[in-house]
Amino acid sequence: MNEYRKVDSTQKLAGSMALRGAPEGTVVVATTQSEGRGRYSRRWKSPQGGLFLSLVLKPGRERAPLFALVGALAVVHAIENEGELAPMIRWPNDVIINGKKVGGVLATGSYAGGTLSHVVVGIGVNCNFNASKLGRTSGRATTLFNALGKSVDLVSFRNGILGSFAGLYSGWEREGDLKVVTEIRGRLSTLGRQVIYLSRSGSRVEGKARGLSRDGSLLVSTSGRTARLRPEDVRWIREL
Ligand code: BTN
Is 11 a pocket residue for ligand 1 (Cβ < 6 Å)? Predict the structure, then answer.
């Protein structure tokens, strides 16, 4: 475990450690980040009291979109152990409580000569602070402090996430996608919902989320056709 008080981004740091040969399972944790990043290079606000960690993985084969979802499932498990909450996953990488985002997961793949050399899974959870600290986005976000009415122990919460992720990841490596994808489907708030999303090319599309494929793509039916969305195809998605 590599623990820091303040870094620019655990994701950046873990990525450069992986490039220098850090082994699978290397974890980078920080108390705050000055340049925390989310999907599409969006800023990830990282005040003290939050959990910010990145984990280096060296998977045997290519299974990209599922990494963020498996990370989100580990966060869901760890939140459930903190109290009477019903966290869910909002495709492709959000963890939500009562429709508000409490955490996000970023999976960054790195390739050498066309083959996947490592993946960094970055996890950010709003823990022990008030959502008002998140500024403009605070209306759509929540924190564990707000949802539980008390703080969590950051070290045991973090260990809960890492323990759950390790179990899910080794089961996934051993047994393949089906079991973990089935569990993710059961926790996905998006399924069966009418959604609107902004595509990579900038068009707004509305449709119904009908399923999650074995590789983690979301199946959305729009007028007359079914789109198979990978996380990188979607800038943002809202459940209506
Ligand atoms: C998202 O919702 O877009 C994903 C957010 C991921 C944030 C985490 S915090 C730890 C790690 N370091 C970063 O800079 N980002 C990830």
Answer: yes
pLDDT in tens, 107-135: 998 888 878 889 999 999 999 999 999 98
pLDDT the model gives residue 116: 85
To test ligand 1's pocket by mutation, which of 8, 119, 123 has the most ligand atoms within 8 angstroms of CB? 123
Contact 45 CB / ligand 1 (< 6 Å) = no
Q: How far is CA 231 from CA 72, 91, 116, 178, in A?
A: 14, 8, 18, 19
What is the whole-number distance in angstroms between the Cα of residue 178 and the centre of ligand 1? 26
Please tell me the predicted confidence (pLDDT) of residue 64. 62
| Residue 190: per-residue pLDDT | 95
- 114: its two tokens: 């066309």
Q: Is 124 in the pocket of ligand 1 (CB under 6 A)?
A: yes
Closest C-alpha residue for ligand 1 atom 7: 124
Sign of CA dihedral 40, 97, 109, 191: negative
